[in-house]
Design brief:
Chain B: One of its GO terms (molecular function) is ATP hydrolysis activity. The complex is a heterodimer of chains A (563) and B (556). Chain A has 563 residues and is of the alpha/beta class. Helices cover 59% and strands 10% of the residues of chain A. Chain A is built from 19 helices and 10 strands. The radius of gyration of chain A is 35 Å and the shape is elongated. Chain B is elongated. In chain B, helix 2 runs antiparallel to helix 3. Classes of the chains: A alpha/beta (563), B alpha/beta (556). The interface between A and B is large, with 164 and 171 residues.
Chain lengths: 563, 556
């Protein structure tokens, strides 16, 4: 990654600052005032000491008042500056978090499934890291430049050579921002990569706890995380050493400026050459040195800030990429509403391929009439789940359309529908459905309209979820204490509680015992609406009005009895 | 100054690294002192008109600056080494505490929160350990030395500097309690958001299908705002501390400068001493400024400490790792157990179990015998206790009564291979996942995959055995996951194989293949299968029906 693309990564993050321009301005003003107060404090002190040593005169009352006031002002301003800039950064970060959620909501599940642990690490870790960028960059660079210019002008007025030394020193300091920048960026990237790989490993180990324990893999996993931590430390060490080296170079330059200012002052005071004119009072020497140090320190601070951005470039790039993930469905420009009444489904020449795989569906067509209960049959991997996901509009097909069809045959492509209307009409129960942590009631109501407890209790009773669970029971993450059958019943209850017109079911009866399967099949058979159910179980398919064979040439259906 | 006892204790476990990074830090500080002396010398030489002294002093300044460069690099290396070792130790212990059977049935354990603690939480301690702790040591070693020097030059200046240092160190103590409380608030909301985000990203397909994206967005936004407010609160308190330190530093320097003024005016001394007082007064606060800077960099990380303590990161390691006894090198264990690779009978007698806090037993006085040679099937309603029985056999749960014996000896966990109802695969290649419990040959892997009916699927994948499996195997179908897990279990070569719903996600033809495989496998080992598919029960001699925690009947 070169400097230009690094700048691009950061530029992508700047729009988030636009609503905060007032805060930025305030941050700049307070920061500049605070830095100038500090510079004035050191210069005034040095000036008074210089005069006391050379002229043997104490500073006047005004000096005391000024210095005392500056000490207090500096304290308040320091606190204010940090407070304003951090509060601003945290507001920006909160906004970024939600922007990332929106990006994921548009783009997940991706056609190429990715690691959710990594996604979470991006969302949380990278954004937290950008705190530095938002809190300590733009306004602070402005404040540093202002302080530098002020001290430079003052020093030049006192002794032009000293001003020249300062300018030269600052120029050299500024170039250090580019030293080893590429290496620093690469190390930052590798460090972040190690961190997310480690995070992935931890998520996997925790998710696969039963297998980990059964195969006694705990010590191997611990040893692997240990190695990973050691590797990350080695990278951190190299990055810190590099940063320290650049800092040391900068300190050397600052020292050189001090040496230079003393040397030119000595020359100007006529010390180094006999008989030269004394253009500078030695009383001003301490003040001049303090001024030079304050000015170069401002440049150093600005440069350090820029250097600290290098390791953040990887994070900035990933956050920017996350914000710009390609959406998996398009948002209709003029969303259509759905008419009332029963709805059917129609697939017209639908094609779909997962990334880098052979097409799963090619110009596939099928139709389910309003109110019909249709089964979808075919061997594993033939695309049954894909058809269901397309009907639920988790993805858009690469070609062809998926439509909801009214009783009079009018088609409404799902890609043109208002999302709320679509989700209100179509419910999905699939093999990987998630139950979220929270109560049963929370889960039943998610995404639906509020319903009285009596309705919800009736739905639970309908799916046979009585006795072992109540509306107020907490499920824990993904229902840890529930068996597969219990989870399936709750997922079905959640779908029914929404009173959908089309019910899509994907393989839910697969891992159930015969009694549960029977009960669930009964509930689905009694469902008053359109059903499309993907299954490889003859018993489940047998209860459908009609069976669509996904492998058959388009349009040719099978009768249930054929199976 | 804030002392986090747990982290000091951890740092003290590596005394050499701690001493080295502190000693180098103090040496770096002494180069600053030497430079201050040289500058004072140079300035008084200019004043006194001694050109040779001016050049000598300037050379000294340059020399100390070079020495400092080298010392600071060595210090950085030592400090990162210390931080890394502590992080390693913390993560090792927290992982060991997390990978235990108790977590299987703990509804409060959330993967996202654990990940935040084990990942970011542990890394967050680094700034405190590698930077702040040596900086504290530096304050106690270096500040007294400078104050002593100042006292010799000018008692008044020395006292002013000492007062400023004490104020800067003790002032923030007043905030400590508030810091601790707000820090805990902050970590709670960070954890809550982390857990929520992970859960919602995982369930995004469900969320979209439910049309609950706007609702979830609203909930997350509320959480995110809560986190922002909490972070702001922690930050405000922490910054007030920075302001107090700044006040003490500036006040101390100005007061010492005033003393230097008095020194100069009373005219007792040559000017070099006056300059020296001015410069040393400033240097006396350098360790304090370092401390404040490192505190600012590290304070957010410290908010994770209570969470880490809960994860067990500070609890000393057990004498042996959780799975040490049987599996020294985990890979070799199954082979090491080869003599017991074959067993005749698994006998369960009078087994009872109840989840803590549950009103009823899940299993009550259950007895059964499974033999090598033929498949044993257990059927029963959802929730009848079949999975609990498996967890008891595996030793993940401890029965409240009863015994489980393999050929007359208590069963050990490494006697049993398992295929779960929802098998979980690791991120890594398919080969990595198959070779988890050993180092089988290529031929063995192929044979096991063929036996599990997954070989053709693997060969149709773009990179075959080297295809990457995404988290929890979500890029494979349910059936493929199950057959891979079966192949993995076959490769473990253990005398007992527990199979939970092996055919649940398979079509009829594949299910029949897998059942045939299981019948074949049952000739060499004891195979117990949970199932309720009538077709999988065809040909199974030994079918046990589990109902409400008891074995109702044993039908042929």
């Amino acid at each position: 990654m070169n400097t230009a693309s690094a700048l691009r990564a950061f530029r992508a993050l700047l729009p988030a600052l636009r609503p905060e321009w007032r805060g930025m301005l305030r941050s700049y003003l307070v920061g500049t005032a605070s830095a100038l107060a500090l510079a004035a404090l050191t210069v005034l002190t040095a000036w008074a000491v210089g005069h006391a040593v050379v002229d043997r005169t104490p500073p006047g009352a005004a000096w005391w008042v000024l210095v005392g006031g500056l000490v207090l002002a500096r304290t308040v301003l320091t606190w204010q500056e940090m407070d304003v800039s951090h509060a601003l950064a945290y507001r920006v970060l909160a906004r970024l978090r939600m922007a990332l959620f929106d990006a994921y909501a548009r783009s997940v599940p991706g056609r190429r499934r990715e690691h959710s642990g990594r996604a979470a690490a991006v969302a949380m870790g990278d954004i937290e890291k950008l705190e530095f960028f938002y809190a300590h960059t733009v306004a602070q660079l402005g404040a540093s430049i202002t302080v530098f210019l002020t001290t430079l002008i003052t020093a030049s007025v006192l002794l032009p050579e000293a001003g020249a030394v300062m300018l030269g020193g600052s120029a050299v300091v500024a170039t250090t921002a580019l030293y080893w920048a590429r290496t620093a960026r690469r190390l930052g990237e590798r460090e972040q990569h190690e961190r997310s790989a480690l995070s992935e490993r931890i998520v996997d180990a925790l998710g696969a706890l039963r297998e980990v324990l059964a195969y006694r893999l705990a010590s191997r996993i611990i040893a692997e995380t240990d190695t990973a931590t050691r590797r990350a430390t080695a990278i951190t060490r190299r990055r810190e050493l590099l940063a320290q080296l650049v800092t040391a170079v900068r300190e050397l330059v600052v020292t050189a400026v001090v040496v230079g200012v003393i040397a030119v002052s000595a020359a100007a005071a006529g010390v180094l050459t006999d008989g030269a004119d004394a253009r500078l009072s030695p009383a001003l020497l301490p003040a001049l040195v303090a001024l030079a140090v304050a000015g170069v320190a401002a440049t150093t601070e600005a440069t350090t800030t820029l250097t600290q951005l290098h390791p953040l470039i990887a994070s900035a790039g990933r956050v920017a990429a996350g914000l710009n993930r390609p959406p998996v469905v398009t948002v209709p420009r003029a969303p259509r509403r759905l008419p009332d009444g029963p709805l059917g489904l129609r697939f017209r020449d639908v094609s779909f391929a997962y990334d880098s795989r052979r097409p799963t569906l090619t110009a596939w067509s099928a139709e389910v009439a309003p109110g019909e209960h249709a089964g979808l049959a075919g061997p594993s991997g033939a695309g049954k789940s894909t058809v269901i996901a397309l009907a639920a509009r988790l993805w858009d097909p690469s070609a062809g359309t998926v439509e909801l069809v009214t009783a009079d045959g009018a088609g409404f492509p799902v890609s043109e529908l208002d999302d709320t209307a679509l989700r209100g009409a179509v419910a999905l129960v699939d093999q990987d459905a998630t139950l979220f942590h929270g109560t049963v009631r929370d889960n039943l109501l998610r995404g639906g309209r509020p319903r009285p407890d009596s309705d919800l209790a009736a739905v639970l009773a309908r799916v046979g979820a009585t006795g072992w669970i109540g509306l107020d029971d907490d499920l824990g993450e993904d229902g840890v204490r529930l068996s597969g059958g219990q989870k399936a019943r709750l997922c079905l209850a959640r779908a029914l509680a929404r009173r959908p017109r089309v019910l899509l079911v994907d393989e839910v009866t697969a891992s159930l015992d015969p009694d549960t399967e029977q009960a669930i099949s009964d509930v689905i058979a009694d469902f008053d609406g359109t059903v499309l159910i993907a299954s490889h179980r003859p018993e489940t398919l047998a209860r459908c009005d009609r069976i669509i064979d996904i492998t058959a040439p388009t349009g040719r259906d099978r009768e249930p009895s054929v199976l | 100054m804030m002392v986090v006892r747990e982290l000091w204790r951890e740092a003290a476990r590596f005394p050499a690294a701690l001493a080295l990074s502190t000693a180098l830090l103090v040496l770096v500080f002494f180069t600053h002192l030497a430079q201050a002396v040289a500058i004072a010398w140079a300035m008084s030489a200019v004043l006194g008109g001694h050109p040779h002294d001016v050049f000598a002093a300037l050379a000294l300044i340059a020399g100390t600056a070079l020495a400092r460069t080298l010392l600071s690099l060595a210090q950085t290396s030592a400090a990162t080494g210390l931080g890394g070792r502590v992080r390693q130790a913390l993560r090792r212990r927290a992982m060991a505490a997390a990978l235990v059977p108790e977590r299987l049935h703990d509804p409060a354990a959330r993967a996202g929160a654990m990940r935040a603690g084990l990942g970011d939480g542990v890394d967050g301690t680094d700034a405190y350990v590698s930077k702040y702790i040596p900086a504290v040591a530096q304050v106690f070693l270096a500040c007294p030395a400078v104050v002593a020097a100042l006292l010799l030059l000018s008692p008044a200046a020395g006292l002013c500097a000492a007062a400023g240092i004490v104020l800067a160190l003790l002032g923030p103590m007043a905030w400590k309690r508030m810091m601790a409380r707000r820090g805990l608030d902050h970590w709670d909301s960070y954890e809550a958001l982390s857990a929520d985000l992970l859960e919602n990203l995982r369930g995004m397909a469900t969320l979209r299908a439910l049309g609950d994206v706007p609702g979830t967005r609203h909930r997350l936004d509320t959480r995110s705002e809560a986190l922002r407010r909490a972070t702001e609160r922690v930050m405000r308190v922490s910054l007030a501390e920075t302001a107090v330190i700044d006040l003490a530093v500036q006040g101390g320097i100005v007061a010492a400068a005033a003393a230097a003024l008095g020194h100069a005016l009373t005219g007792q001394a040559p000017s070099v001493e006056t300059y020296l007082i001015l410069l040393l007064a400033s240097e006396a606060f350098r360790p304090i400024r370092d401390l404040s800077r490192h505190w600012h960099a590290g304070f957010l990380g410290l908010t994770a400490v209570p969470g880490l303590a809960q994860l067990g990161a500070f609890t000393p390691e057990r004498a042996t790792a959780p799975d040490e006894p049987a599996a020294a090198p985990a890979g070799a264990a199954p082979r090491g157990a080869a003599p017991s690779g074959r067993a005749e009978a698994l006998r369960v007698s009078e087994l009872s179990f109840r989840y803590p806090g549950a009103p009823d037993d899940v299993l009550r006085g259950l007895s059964l015998t499974a033999r090598r040679g033929s498949l044993t099937a257990i059927v029963g309603e959802s929730g009848a206790g079949k999975s609990t029985l498996f967890d008891l056999l595996l030793g993940f749960l401890t029965p409240s009564a009863g015994r489980i014996m393999l050929d007359g000896r208590p069963v050990r966990a490494d006697d049993i291979a398992v295929v779960s109802q929802r098998p979980v695969l690791f991120a890594g290649t398919i080969r990595d996942n198959l070779t988890l419990a050993g180092a089988p040959t290529e031929a063995e892997i192929t044979a096991a995959c063929r036996a599990a009916g997954i070989l053709d699927d693997i060969h149709s994948l773009p990179r075959r055995f080297d295809t990457e499996v995404a988290e929890a195997g979500t890029n494979l179908s349910g059936g493929q996951r199950q057959r891979l897990a079966l192949a993995r279990a076959l490769l473990a070569h253990r005398p007992v194989l527990l199979v939970d719903e092996p055919t649940s996600a398979l079509d009829a033809a594949r299910a029949a293949e897998v059942v045939t495989t299981l019948h074949r496998v049952a000739r060499d080992r004891i195979v117990i299968m949970i199932t309720h598919r009538p077709e999988t029960l065809a040909g199974v001699a030994h079918v046990l029906r589990l109902d409400a925690g008891q074995l109702q009947r044993s039908a042929p």
